What does this fold into?
Amino acid sequence: MTGSDPLLDRSAITTALRRLGDRLARRGVVADIYVFGGAAMALVYDARRATRDVDAVFQPHGIVIEEARVVAAELGLPPWWLNEQASAYVAPGGDPSAPEVFDHPGLRVAAASAEHLLAMKIHAARRRDVEDVRILVRHLGLRSAQEALDLCADVFPDEPAGNAAAFDCPLRGVERAILTPHIAGSTLEAQEKIGVEVARKLAHYATRGSTVGAVNFPELHLADHAGALRILHIHRNVPGVLRQVNRIVAEEGLNIVGQHLQTLHDLGYVVLDVEDGGPERLLPALRAVPGTIRARLLAPGIAL
It folds into this structure.
């Protein structure tokens, strides 16, 4: 996701779901979607709320993803507008009180109950969720922090060992293994799913340059670059860098077939896909551009 992605309010989410349901119905499919996160807030608990994507879990998986991407193209949404990237936060025991918010011949949509949504947001412990937590606490009529903690224990009854327990892991002492502290996944299932998701995102950065989910770095969602040389250029967010990068590529006689730029505070991240040329000629010139922090090239099967 990037800062330029459109915000989805209640009306936009409903429109996208209706279009998705229409497409699924034409294929004789009835899908079930469980929505949580900001989309659930917008659909049920806060009409003013908007979100950049719809966090959900759904079945059947493949055809929903396929048709959601078609809907994205039709409505001008990012292809990941409906995704399961935050599924690690869903309580493993299910949510029997989840209200149905959308009923269509091809699609049934339920939103997380206020109890489950509050427990997810408390366990995630993110600053941006503070206002949502306040709204949900008022909605549920909770009067103390203990009541909120008791609710979390009801939703997520099986917790990992506490801080006093000895840390024992077969990866301790393994060369080049990186063990991270608590990463906001508070159930064993969530920790397992988040571990997989972190590994996937690191792999996507290494092989594609994709930075989706980064909190202190510009976010870009990048597809595969088969048949193209991909240039990754991290730089200070100052004027003229993109112009110089483009000049270097043009002087090498390479045709640009795709280009992405995103900035965050004082950082800039530009990604160019060019028709494959001699990568060894580009790196020294790219690294010499004033303001450059790091430059990488990704060729099919090669990362420099």
Notes: The first helix runs from residue 10 to 26. The mean pLDDT is 85.
